[in-house]
Amino acid sequence: MPRLKNKIAVVTGGSSGIGLATAKRFVEEGAYVFIAGRRKAELDKAVAEIGSNVTGIKADISKLEDLDRLYDTVAKKGKIDVIFAGAAFVEKAMTLTVSPEHFDKTFNTNARGTYFTVQTALPHLNDGASVILVASAGKNKGFPGRSTYSASKAALRSFARTWTSELKDRKIRTNVLSPGAVDTPMFNDQFPSQDAAAEARKQITSLTPLNRLARPEEIAAAALFLASDESSFVAGIDLAVDGGLTAV
Amino acid sequence: MDRYQGKKVVIIGGTSGMGLATAKMLLDGGARVLVTGRSQGGLDSAQKELGKGALVVSSDARSLTDIDALASRVKTEFDTIDLLFVNAGFSIPTPLGGVTEAIYDEMFNLNAKGPFFAVQKLAPLINRGGAVVLTTSVANVKGLPGQATYGAAKAALRSFARTLAAELLPQEIRVNAVSPGPVETGILEKVFPTEEMRAHVRGHTLGIIPMKRFGTSEEIAKAVLFLAFDATFTNGHELPVDGGWSQL
User: Fold this and answer.
1) What is the pTM of this model?
2) What string of DSSP letters covers B147-179?
3) pLDDT (0 to 100) of residue A142
4) Is B51 exposed, middle or buried (0-12, 13-18, 19+ CB in 10 A)?
5) Which of A118, A171, A179, B173 has its CA 20 to 30 A from that of A227?
């Protein structure tokens, strides 16, 4: 039995990494998925890779007009059952060197963008929908160079609490999914060189009790749990998928 | 359905409520299941409900002798297992002044000591890639009147999930906890002697659960099976299934 049969899902940050893996899994489980991403070429590639029951929409979640356009398109297909808010911006920067531009870009994408991704969606959501906010294990840690990223993700954890209260009458559940380090293009892209990425990989692996990075499919499996009726009494939580990084 | 085909599972405290619901789901999915319980009536009704395919074994979850015997029985029946679900536990709600040494010991023996030794004795039988799931409780992060010893014993159990996750890493066994809020398991009837008390607890509970209802045993079972078989990068974690109670 497919677990998301005839459901409509929106996946932001859906053209690569964990968003793409999640979109793929949702389609496999019977859903129709709209993936949103900023880069047209990547988006086209992702749509081709997923194959069927998918539409790609070019959208930057930090731009409200893009979000309006995203949901106008989705509304033509029907009401939304699942939002996987995975779009994010990450750039490593030590506090001393953080510029106002870096600060704003990080918060405008991760916190503000996610906030309006959900707010704009509200009229288009079915009662009983599941909203999944992708945060990060880093928000519970004090990793150097992550001050803005981790704090912007901590804001998502708080949104999930408040929205669970505010949306309970519509039986809409909001939960957070917090990945640790995942083997994705985004992991490498945040470092200036391949050597730096390899060094970071070694370091995070040694800090992670399971002694490896996650596969994107493992994040997708957790997303499916939160998206489906399997988690029907799970609300306002932060689900760690970090190989034990924050738990142990 | 063959989602759990080939899996071998032991459920300690599996003759009613959440344990029984988990056993049913596993059997439906093709797994082999051994459940334990204490009362003869519970064992009989569980055997009837689960059918001949299930092994229903009399074992006191507090008794180290019984746990040893259980480990030998499991070795004989299954040789190895893929999941150990340690679910046995209950509360004797008692205000501070009324807690006797016997109640204190009972709460810690059943909710902390028994589960600890169950993992110690059965972990050697768990296959690489297998899992342990412990049942904690929302009470371990709340200050619920009358639940001091139960809440503290469950907090100890939550801590075991972290340390045992770390210690079982070399065997590639993940240890996680599921933390139920109020669930319709029939336990209210066991814990509270009069209908008046039960009605009071029900009314009070519904008033404070954000989702305004009790959970079902099936909802807990789904979370357990997610942690056991799908959450391959989640370790040392506690997954609340409490309608948002502990989160908002």
Assistant:
1) 0.87
2) -HHHHHHHHHHHHHHHHHHHHTGGGT-EEEEEE
3) 86
4) exposed
5) B173
State the DSSP string of A41-77.
Answer: HHHHHHHHHH-SSEEEEE--TT-HHHHHHHHHHHHTT
Q: For residue A72, count other CB atoms closer than 10 A to its CB.
A: 11
To the nearest whole angstrom, how far is the Cα of B125 from the nearest Cα of chain A? Answer: 20
Is beta strand A8-12 parallel, antiparallel or unpaired with respect to A80-85?
Answer: parallel
CA proximity to B189, closest of B11, B17, B21 = B17
Q: At what angle do helices B114-122 and B64-78 cross, to 10 degrees?
A: 30
Q: Per residue in B191-226, pLDDT tens?
A: 788 889 888 888 888 888 999 899 999 999 999 999
Task: Name the phi and psi angles at B114, rounded to 5.
Answer: -55, -55
Amino acid identity at A228: S
Which chain B residue lies closest to A168 (C-alpha atoms)? B211
**A106-143 residues labelled b (16+ CB within 10 A) or e (exposed):** bbbbbbbbbbbbbebbbebbbeebbbbbbbbbbbbeeb
Please, are residues A17 and A185 in contact by the beta-carbon 8 Å criterion?
yes
